[in-house]
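Supplementary Methods. Inverse-folding protocol.

Structures were first reduced to a discrete structure-token string of length 415. This string, shown here, constituted the complete conditioning input.
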């Protein structure tokens, strides 16, 4: 059946102002597998907007050939609130300007509400159990509050994604190679996707306590299974993945076309779209634990002069960057070396050298400059249990870093 398109209005934030989401739907409603896509939940992350635009073209062509076997829900942009936040020429789409926080943190956890609805209903029929859990999660999403524009946005997105077999939350990082985040129980799916996208890094995590959108979709299934002691008695689940499409400036038509083709291949591989995806493509990396990501801190304010390009494999002790103290009277004594504390792939960092400038306060400068170096350990999951040594940075470092890095968005421009 042909694609349908719907506009869903968000709550009116102020008189004379209204924003809306656009939703494209492919396939028969209720058909499985069901896939959900949206781009730029952090509104100022644009590579995904272009990639999904290409994907729509591929899906339209497949639809015209009658090849949509499951159901696909695709939102070309996930965050019209963030897209409208412009300050002095910069789009500041990572945080809600009304104080609502990071758009990709603290999503509602539907586990408890769904468990209440399931009370005593699950039995011995795995297929029936799966449908009951899916319905309970959807009902829980339907009950979410919709009092403000931001609540409407979150409730609408989660209602659309809940019940999908796979959820693709498409973001980008600062200056970065492509990488994927997923729950560790979805390692096989993540690695298959990494093969089709040729992603050089895959980061797996346990339950994320700051509840990004991927976790809001994947974790309730995992928690319900765990709490009720179900395994084979509850098949199904949701492979929810955050796809980081390189860096903010990697908004290129050729890359977007190629990334869309990779996503489309994965849809064929999983039977959402009929067709031959070709042989399984090996991922160009091993899966690594998110807890194995190391972030080096600059010892103070200044400008970070990088010594390596993204994509370099580095060894412990290697000089990664120098912090240049612009207050020093003698440039010869202004540089403090910053060394790698782990061996691995240098896959992402804060904004480009040319754009790094001192911030207006020590604290802000420290936050801007102090968490800019990412090293993904190459040790395979789950052997690597890297803890940050004496940095005071919590274990869930990458999430926090991504949050902190957004500070740059309000300065020279990040990320
Ligand atoms: Zn993001």
């Amino acid at each position: 059946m042909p694609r349908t398109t719907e506009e869903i209005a968000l709550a009116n934030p102020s008189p004379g102002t209204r924003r809306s989401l656009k939703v494209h739907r492919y396939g028969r409603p209720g058909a499985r597998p069901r896939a959900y896509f949206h781009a730029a939940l952090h509104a100022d992350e644009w590579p995904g907007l272009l990639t999904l635009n290409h994907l729509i073209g591929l899906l339209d062509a497949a639809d015209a050939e009658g090849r949509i076997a499951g159901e696909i829900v695709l939102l070309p942009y996930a965050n019209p609130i963030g897209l409208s936040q412009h300050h002095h020429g910069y789009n500041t789409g990572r945080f809600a300007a009304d104080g609502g926080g990071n758009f990709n943190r603290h999503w509602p956890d539907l586990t408890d509400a769904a468990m209440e609805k399931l009370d005593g209903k699950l039995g011995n029929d795995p297929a029936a159990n799966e449908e009951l859990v899916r319905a309970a999660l959807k009902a829980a999403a339907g009950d979410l509050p919709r009092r403000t524009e931001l609540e409407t946005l979150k409730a609408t997105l989660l209602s659309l994604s809940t019940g999908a077999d796979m959820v693709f939350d498409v973001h980008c990082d600062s200056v970065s190679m492509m990488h994927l985040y997923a729950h560790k129980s979805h390692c096989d799916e993540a690695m298959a996707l990494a093969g089709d996208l040729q992603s050089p890094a895959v980061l797996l995590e346990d339950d994320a306590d700051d509840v990004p959108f991927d976790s809001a979709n994947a974790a309730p299934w995992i928690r319900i299974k765990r709490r009720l002691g179900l395994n084979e008695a509850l098949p199904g689940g949701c492979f929810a993945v955050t796809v980081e499409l390189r860096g903010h400036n990697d908004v290129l038509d050729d890359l977007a076309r190629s990334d869309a083709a990779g996503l489309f291949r994965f849809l064929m591989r999983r039977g959402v779209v009929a067709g031959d995806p070709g042989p399984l493509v090996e991922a160009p990396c091993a899966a690594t634990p998110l807890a194995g990501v190391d972030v080096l801190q600059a010892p103070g304010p200044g400008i970070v002069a990088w010594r390596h390009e993204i994509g370099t494999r580095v060894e412990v002790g290697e000089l990664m960057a120098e912090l240049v103290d612009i207050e020093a009277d003698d440039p010869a004594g202004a540089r403090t070396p910053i060394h790698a504390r782990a061996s691995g792939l240098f896959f992402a960092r804060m904004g480009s050298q040319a754009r790094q400038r001192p911030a207006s306060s020590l604290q802000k400068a420290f936050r801007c400059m102090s968490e800019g170096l990412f090293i993904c350990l190459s040790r395979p999951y789950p052997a690597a249990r890297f803890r940050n040594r004496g940095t005071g940075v919590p274990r869930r470092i990458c999430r926090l870093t991504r949050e902190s890095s957004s500070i740059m968005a309000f300065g020279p421009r990040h990320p």
